[in-house]
Amino acid sequence: MNSSPRTQPDSCPGVLAVHQAADGGLARVRLPGGLLSAAQLRVLAAASGELGDGHLELTSRGNIQIRALRPGAPQTLSDRLYSAGLLPSISHERVRNILASPLSGLDQDSLYDVLPLAAELDRLLCAQPALAELPGRFLFALDDGRGDLGAVGADVAVRVLAGGKGLLVLGGVSRGAEVPLEDAPAVMIAAAEAFLTERAAQDSEAWRIAELADGAAEVYERLGLEPRGLDPRGLDPRGLDPLGLDPLGLEPLVAAEAAGTAVVVAGRREQVDGRVAVVVTVPLGSLSAEQAAVLSDLAELGNGQIRVTPWRSVVLGGFDAVDDAVAQLEAVGLVVEPESPWNGVTACAGKPGCAKALADVRADARDVTPRIRRGRQPVHWSGCERRCGRPAGRFVDIIALGNGYAIDGEPVDVELVEAVAAARGAR
C-alpha cells in the first residue's frame, strides 16, 4: 500500500542545491559513514566562519550543515569542499546518505568493522550514473551488529550477524535474507536500483521504499532473494544489477526488529586494542568554531578521525588516556558526561533562522535543559508542525504554538521546565 503519495521530486539541500532559509543559504554536506579527518573539519569550520554564521550543524543523519550562506557563497564553498575531498561527485552529492555504526571497529560490541563497507558502498554509488536520480532522502545504513541503527528508518540496511553474514532489511521490513558481508555494498546498490525500477513501473514520485505500493515486497522480488541468502541469479556477474527474478520459497514479510533505541550516548569507551574512545555530545548539534578547533586538535592526538553520529554527537578514538582530552572538551561546552541532561536533546533551527518557526526553540531549549536532570526519553523541540530534524523512534515532542508550547500533543499549562521534566521522565 502506498502510505504517502508524492507529486514532485524532493528538495533536500546539498552543497550545490542550497536551500534558501530566512537567515540565508543552507548547505548540507554528506559524510558517508559519518567520517571526517581533522583537516576536513577545519575546512568546514573555516568555511562556516567566512561564508556562513560560524557554526556547524550536526544532523540526524550524521551529516553537517552550514547556515546563513551569503549570495555567491555556495560556489566558493563547493570549491573548498572539492579540494578537501568532501565533494567527490558533483552528480551524486545529494544521494550519498550512508549511516554506519559510529563505534564500529572500536569496542567489543562491534561484531564487524563496517566502515570499509560504507566506503565501498559510497564508491559504487557514485560510479553508477543512474543512481544520481535517487531522492535526497533515500537512506542506506550499515549496523555493526549492536543494533544502534535499527530505528533510523533506512531504506536499505544491512545488520551484521555472526559468521560473516549480514541481514538485509528493506524499507524497515526483513525477509530473513542473509548476504555475505563482503557482498553487502553490491547488494545494497542493487536494492537502490530496484527501487528506481519499481518506482518507474508504478509511475511514482516516491522518495522512500515504504512510500511505494508494497514497496519492500516489490524490491525484494526484483532482487530475487531467498529467505536465508542471496539467490545468485538475482545479480549480474558484477553484482550490481537486479534481474527481477521471481523469489523461490520466500517466508512471509515480517516487520524488522526495531532495536535502534540503543543510541550511543556521551562517555568513555574502552577499545578492543586497549586504547580509549570518547563519545562527545554537541548541545543541540550546534558546533562553534572554538569547539570544532578543539575536536580537530584532539583527533590528531588520537586516530585522526572524527566520527559524526546521528545523535548530534561525535566519536574521537585512539587515546592512551583521555582525562586531559575530556577537560579540554568540557572547557568549551561539549559534553562527555553520560548523565548530562543534554544527551538526547535536539531542536530544529527555529526563529530567526526559519520563516515558518513560531518560536526561538533553541533559546528555550538552552534555558530549560540545564534545569532538569537527564530523562529516559529523547526530546525534540520544533518551531512548527513540520518537526524538522526530529530523531528516529519515540521522543518527547515539544512544538511551538505561537503562544506557548504543546508537549506530545497537549498544550502546556504549567511551568515549561516542570512539563518537560515530567514528559521526559527526568530522574
TrEMBL record:
* Location of the Nitrite/Sulfite reductase ferredoxin-like domain: 22-80, 270-327
Q: Which residues cross the membrane?
A: none
Keyword flag Heme: yes
UniProt-recorded Gene Ontology molecular function terms: 4 iron, 4 sulfur cluster binding; metal ion binding; precorrin-3B synthase activity
- InterPro entries reported for this sequence: Cbl_synth_CobG-like, NIR_SIR_4Fe-4S, NiRdtase/SiRdtase_haem-b_fer, Nit/Sulf_reduc_fer-like_dom_sf, NO2/SO3_Rdtase_4Fe4S_sf
Q: Which is an annotated Pfam family here? A: NIR_SIR_ferr
Q: What EC number(s) does this enzyme carry? A: 1.14.13.83
* Keywords linked to the UniProt accession: 4Fe-4S, Heme, Iron, Iron-sulfur, Metal-binding, Oxidoreductase
Which domain of life, per UniProt? Answer: Bacteria
User: What is the protein name given in its UniProt record?
Assistant: Precorrin-3B synthase
Gene source species:
Kribbella qitaiheensis
Q: What is the taxonomic lineage of the source species?
A: Bacteria, Bacillati, Actinomycetota, Actinomycetes, Propionibacteriales
Gene responsible for this protein: cobG
